[in-house]
What does this fold into?
Amino acid sequence: MFAAMTLFAVVLGCQEEPTTGDKIRDVGDGIGDAVGEVGDEIGDVKDDIDTE
It folds into this structure.
């Protein structure tokens, strides 16, 4: 009985909408990824300039 109740709680928990905190974290992750990509591109351009 306990296992069935636990499984039921996990299934319901997986179906919940993302909270505001989840959305904020996702936005922060996206910004961090974008900044990292821009930094990588700047490094690539710098390397290209240095080799010319």
The CA atoms of residues 18 and 24 lie 10 Å apart. The helical segments are 2-14, 20-51. The chain has a mean pLDDT of 80.
